[in-house]
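Lab notebook, design round three. We kept the backbone fixed and only want residue identities now. Task for the bench partner: fill in a sequence for the structure below.
Input C-alpha cells:
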C-alpha cells in the first residue's frame, strides 16, 4: 500500500495539544455524580441534561450560536453532535483538504471544519451546555452519502479500492453492516490486513478530534449512531479515546449506541455493555424510544434501568423520536412528549428530542417540555425520587407515572388529562400539589391534599400534565 505506507509515521508526529489540568470530580468537568452515579454532575453540582435541536452535526450550522441561545433560554443544556459531514443542507464541509482536482487528501486537514468544531465546543461550554459527540455515523458510509464521502476511493488521492479494501459503491442499507469501513479492527468479522491503512487514517481523524475536545470539560463520547457492528469496533475507539485522555491527565466518559435497543432483552450488544461498566461508563439507550409506545415503552425502558442498577451509571437518551408515524416507528409528537416524561420519571440522566424528520427538535412543544421539567425540579429533584407505580390507584393503562420519596415528595406525570389516586398512607399531614402544564411549560394551579389515605388527583385540564407533590 505505497500511498498509505507513510500514514502511521504521519500520525506519530502529529503535534500534541497543550497539557490540561487534571479533571476529576472537583474540577468541574462532566462526570457521574459522586453522590448518585446514576446522574451527572458538572461544575461540581448535580445536573439533569435536557435538550433538543434542529440538526445533529450541530457544529456545522451557520446559525449555531442562535440555536444554542434558543436552547439555553428554554432551560436546555444538552446537545448531540455527530462528527458527520453528510451533505444534507449544503453548508457542511469535510474534515479533509480538497485539492484542485476536487478530490481529497486524507493526510491533510480542512481547517474550516475543525474551526467549526472548536467553536461549537467553546460556545456550548460558555453556556453550560453538555455536548455528546458521536464519532461515527453508519449512514455517512453507505448509499448516496458514500458517493460524496472523501473516504470513497474515487473521491481521494490517498488510496485505491485495491489498496484500501474499500469499494466505490455500497448500495445496501447501513443496518446490514456490509461496509468494511466499520471492520478495520482486528477481531471484527470483516477485517482483513488490507484495512490497516484505513484504520491508521481513522485513528488520525479521531486524534485530531481529541486535540480539540480534550481541552473542554463539557464533552461526552459516544462511538456510534445506532450501530449494528459488533461491539469490538466501538471497544477499540473507547480504548483509543480513554488512552488519549489518560496521556493528557484528564477523565472522559464513553459509550456506544446500538440499533437493537428497542428490544432490550434480546440485545446481545447491550448485554455486553451492561456487563462492561469499565468501558461503557455511561449508557445511551436512544433506540428504546422508537418502535415502542405507551406502557410498552415504559416496560422496555424500565427493563434497562433495572439491569443497569447492578452497576449504576448515567443513562442518556440523546434521541427521542417523535415526528410523524414512520414505517419504522418514530411515533407522533404526542409520543415524543410521553417518552420524554416517562424517561425522566424512570430515572434518566439525559433526555433530548431528536431533530425534525424523526423528532420535534427544538420546536415550541419541545421547549415547553423542557421548561415544565425545569420548573418542576425547583420543587423536587428527579434524583431524589424513584419510580413508584405501586402507589397509584385507579390507574388505567398508560394513564399515569409516578416517582416518589414516599411520605415526603412525589413527581406525577399524567399522559392526557386523567385522574388517579395517590397512596399517602405513610404520609400524615398535608401536601401541596403544584401542577405544570406540559403543553405550555407554565405553572398551573396549586392545591392541597391530605395524607394518611388515598388522595385523589385530577389534571386541571386536557393534555399532558406534571405535578410536584411536596410538604407545604
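Proposed sequence:
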Amino acid at each position: 500500500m505505497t500511498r498509505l505506507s507513510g500514514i502511521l509515521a504521519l500520525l506519530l508526529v502529529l503535534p500534541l495539544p497543550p497539557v490540561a489540568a487534571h479533571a476529576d470530580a472537583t474540577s468541574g468537568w462532566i462526570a457521574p455524580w459522586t453522590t448518585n452515579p446514576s446522574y451527572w454532575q458538572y461544575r461540581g453540582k448535580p445536573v439533569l441534561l435536557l435538550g433538543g435541536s434542529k440538526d445533529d452535526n450541530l457544529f456545522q450550522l451557520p446559525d449555531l450560536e442562535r440555536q444554542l441561545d434558543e436552547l439555553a433560554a428554554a432551560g436546555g443544556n444538552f446537545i448531540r453532535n455527530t462528527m458527520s459531514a453528510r451533505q444534507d443542507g449544503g453548508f457542511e464541509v469535510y474534515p479533509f483538504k480538497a485539492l484542485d482536482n476536487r478530490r481529497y487528501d486524507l493526510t491533510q486537514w480542512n481547517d474550516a471544519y475543525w474551526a467549526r468544531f472548536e467553536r461549537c465546543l467553546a460556545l456550548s461550554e460558555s453556556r453550560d451546555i453538555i455536548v455528546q459527540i458521536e464519532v461515527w455515523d453508519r449512514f455517512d458510509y453507505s448509499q448516496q452519502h458514500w458517493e460524496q464521502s472523501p473516504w470513497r476511493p474515487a473521491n481521494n488521492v490517498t488510496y485505491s479500492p485495491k489498496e484500501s479494501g474499500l469499494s466505490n459503491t455500497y448500495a445496501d442499507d447501513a443496518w446490514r453492516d456490509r461496509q468494511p469501513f466499520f471492520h478495520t479492527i482486528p477481531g471484527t468479522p470483516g477485517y482483513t490486513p488490507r484495512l490497516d491503512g484505513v484504520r491508521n487514517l481513522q485513528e488520525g481523524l479521531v486524534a485530531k478530534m481529541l486535540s480539540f475536545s480534550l481541552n473542554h470539560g463539557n464533552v461526552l463520547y459516544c462511538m456510534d449512531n445506532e450501530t449494528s457492528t459488533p461491539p469490538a469496533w466501538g471497544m477499540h475507539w473507547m480504548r483509543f479515546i480513554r488512552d488519549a485522555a489518560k496521556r493528557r491527565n484528564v477523565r472522559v466518559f464513553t459509550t456506544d449506541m446500538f440499533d437493537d435497543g428497542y428490544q432490550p432483552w434480546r440485545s446481545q450488544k447491550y448485554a455486553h455493555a451492561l456487563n462492561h461498566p469499565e468501558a461503557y461508563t455511561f449508557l445511551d439507550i436512544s433506540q428504546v424510544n422508537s418502535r415502542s409506545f405507551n406502557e410498552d415503552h415504559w416496560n422496555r425502558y424500565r427493563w434497562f434501568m433495572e439491569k443497569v442498577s447492578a452497576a449504576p451509571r448515567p443513562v442518556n437518551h440523546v434521541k427521542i423520536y417523535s415526528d410523524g408515524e414512520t414505517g419504522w416507528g418514530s411515533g407522533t409528537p404526542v409520543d415524543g412528549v410521553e417518552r420524554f416524561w416517562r424517561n425522566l420519571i424512570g430515572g434518566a440522566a439525559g433526555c433530548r428530542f431528536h431533530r425534525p424528520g424523526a423528532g420535534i427538535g427544538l420546536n415550541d412543544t419541545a421547549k415547553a417540555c423542557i421548561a415544565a421539567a425545569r420548573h418542576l425540579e425547583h420543587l423536587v429533584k428527579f434524583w431524589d425520587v424513584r419510580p413508584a407505580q405501586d402507589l397509584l390507584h385507579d390507574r388505567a393503562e398508560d394513564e399515569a407515572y409516578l416517582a416518589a420519596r414516599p411520605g415526603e415528595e412525589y413527581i406525577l406525570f399524567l399522559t392526557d388529562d386523567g385522574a388517579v389516586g395517590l397512596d399517602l398512607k405513610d404520609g400524615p399531614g398535608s401536601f401541596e400539589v403544584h401542577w405544570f402544564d406540559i403543553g405550555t411549560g407554565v405553572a398551573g394551579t396549586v392545591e392541597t391534599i391530605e395524607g394518611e389515605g388515598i388522595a385523589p388527583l385530577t389534571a386541571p385540564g386536557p393534555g399532558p400534565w406534571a405535578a410536584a407533590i411536596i410538604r407545604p
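Keep this in mind before ordering anything: The longest strand covers residues 442-450.
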